[in-house]
């Protein structure tokens, strides 16, 4: 039976629920951690310590930290004239720096988990990104802080995947776009979402878990949408 270690979630209550739901794809065996935070970088170093002491390994790490808007502090910029240094730094700190530092500190446990050969020969790191972080897919502009922070997350994750492969560490890293999901993050912008494109948390999580469950070593460093289609950088 899979053990689930969860740091304080943002919208990841649904991920936790999906793992225990028989209708959702399961990560069979091993230890999984869902990392998310509503403020700051969201590192829970004490809880990392807990995983090492309790289990000694990690088979699946999902980084779900994300920030798009904060009333009176951060709003998606519709024009260059609204770009602020503080907004860029805040978005980068939460959306890019946090997940990467979590991987850094979970790295030793992931190596052990990947070498334990529970169901598969590698551990998986899944970072939640966004399609707007794709440079090749950017045809609308705007949302400077959010776009650039997710692009940074993509580059950092890709770079980590290259290092893991070069070191022959039994770990793969993938990036996932969950679609537009009915959460607090998307709520202020939902009126512009086309009919049928606003997903429930449960639907999106099941789709993402299916991608994780079916991931292969050749998927290391790739960027996938919720429907399994690869997204251009």
Descriptive overview:
Helix content is 36%, strand content 15%. Helix 1 links the parallel strand 1 (3-6) and strand 2. The longest helix is centred in the middle third of the chain and has 31 residues, at 85-115. The chain has a six-stranded parallel sheet with strand order 1-2-3-4-5-8, sandwiched between helices. It has 233 residues and is of the alpha/beta class. Belongs to the short-chain dehydrogenases/reductases (SDR) family. One of its GO terms (cellular component) is cytoplasm.
Question: In a few lines, what is going on in this structure?
Answer:
The chain is α/β, with parallel strands linked by helices and 233 residues long. The protein has helices spanning 13-19, 45-54, 85-115, 144-167, 201-213, and strands at 3-6, 31-35, 60-63, 123-128, 171-177, 180-181, 198-199, 222-225. The radius of gyration is 17 Å and the shape is globular.
Task: Please tag this protein with its features.
233 residues, globular, C-factor isoform X2, 36% helix, Fungal_SecMetab_SDRs, NAD(P)-bd_dom_sf, oxidoreductase activity, two-stranded parallel ribbon, disordered N terminus, SDR_fam, alpha/beta, 5 helices, 6-stranded parallel β-sheet
């Amino acid at each position: 039976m899979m053990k689930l270690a969860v740091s304080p979630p943002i919208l990841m209550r649904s991920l936790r629920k999906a793992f225990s739901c028989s209708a959702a794809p399961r990560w069979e065996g091993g230890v999984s951690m869902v990392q998310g935070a509503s403020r700051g970088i969201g590192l829970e170093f004490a809880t990392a310590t807990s995983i090492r002491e309790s289990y000694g390994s990690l088979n699946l790490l999902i980084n779900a930290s994300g920030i798009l808007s904060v009333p009176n502090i951060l709003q998606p910029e519709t024009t260059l004239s609204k770009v602020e240094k503080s907004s860029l730094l805040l978005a980068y700190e939460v959306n890019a720096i946090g997940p990467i530092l979590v991987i850094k500190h979970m790295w030793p446990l992931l190596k052990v988990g990947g070498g334990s050969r529970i169901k598969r020969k590698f551990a998986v790191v899944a970072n939640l990104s966004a399609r707007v972080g794709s440079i090749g897919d950017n045809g609308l502009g705007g949302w400077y802080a959010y776009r650039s922070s997710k692009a940074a997350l993509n580059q950092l994750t890709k770079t980590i995947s290259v290092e893991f492969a070069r070191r022959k560490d039994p770990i793969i890293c993938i990036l996932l776009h969950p679609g537009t999901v009915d959460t607090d993050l998307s709520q202020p912008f939902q009126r512009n979402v086309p009919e049928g494109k606003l997903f429930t948390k449960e639907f999106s999580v099941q789709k993402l878990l299916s991608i994780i469950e079916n991931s292969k070593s050749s998927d290391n460093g790739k960027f996938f949408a919720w429907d399994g289609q690869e997204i251009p950088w």
